[in-house]
Amino acid sequence: MQFELLGWPAEGPTLALDYRRFSYAGKFVMSSTGKAVAREDDTVVAAVAFNEDRTDSSTLWLRYVTVREDHRGEGIGPRLLAFAREQAASRGYDRVKIAVNNPFAYEAGYRAGLAFTGETTGIAELVLAWPAEQSVDTYQSGLDRYRERDLSEAETRFLTRKQHSDPPAVVDAPPASGDGV
Q1: Rounded CA separation 167/150 (Å)
Q2: Where are the beta strands (DSSP E) in 68-176?
Q3: Which residue intervals of the chain are DSSP H helices?
Q4: DSSP code of 1?
Q5: 3-class secondary structure, 134
Q6: Which helix H or strand E contains 138, and what residues bound it?
């Protein structure tokens, strides 16, 4: 697996993804966000879009994360998020945030080294941030927010398995590859 930074928001990188295989595919053709990808055999299997916070230039928001449907559950999402987090830190950002709308994305964020801040967005997404201390109480408090919602069977099973568990182990950020920026 290769991880590549395609560019920062000011550079306007765009990415065409197959909407039948990727969630949020249309969000990656926008040129107002930076992009990073995970490739397997030169084929994009995951992507993340990001931009600087409008009110805090030291914070980078990870906006849209998508993993190709036939590669979900392989741990690519957390590794790509960790890669983007490290790229942001090397660019001088002090903080990285993401707002997630389901327990699977929440878990991926934790595996990438982010943690629940206790905040939610106006559309009920939970905000995770880095750097942050990953405590059992904070991790479980975020999962509890999802337990109060109307969820799919898969999400309910996942939350049942995670009851009383520690936060997941943080994955190492993979090195950049290719001719990325």
Answers
A1: 23
A2: 95-100, 115-120, 126-130
A3: 76-90, 103-111, 136-147, 153-162
A4: -
A5: coil
A6: helix 136-147
Per-residue HEC secondary structure of 150-163 comes to CCCHHHHHHHHHHC
* Residues 62, 100: Cα–Cα separation, whole Å: 10
Q: Are 116 and 128 in contact (CB under 8 A)?
A: yes
pTM passes above 0.70: yes
Q: Which of 96, 86, 94 is nearest to 51 (CA)?
A: 96
Tokens 């397997």 appear where? 40
Residue at 79: amino acid letter? R
Are the beta carbons of 174 and 83 closer than 8 angstroms? yes
Length, in residues, of the chain = 181
Per-residue pLDDT of the chain (181 residues; tens, 9 = 90+): 999 999 999 888 999 999 999 998 999 998 889 999 999 999 999 999 999 999 999 999 999 999 999 999 999 999 999 999 999 999 999 999 999 999 999 999 999 999 999 999 988 899 999 998 889 999 999 999 999 999 999 999 999 999 999 999 999 999 987 544 4
Can you say whether the dihedral through the CA atoms of 91, 102, 23, 168 is positive or negative?
Answer: positive
What does the DSSP 8-state code read for residue 95? E
CA-closest candidate to residue 66, choices 119, 102, 95: 102
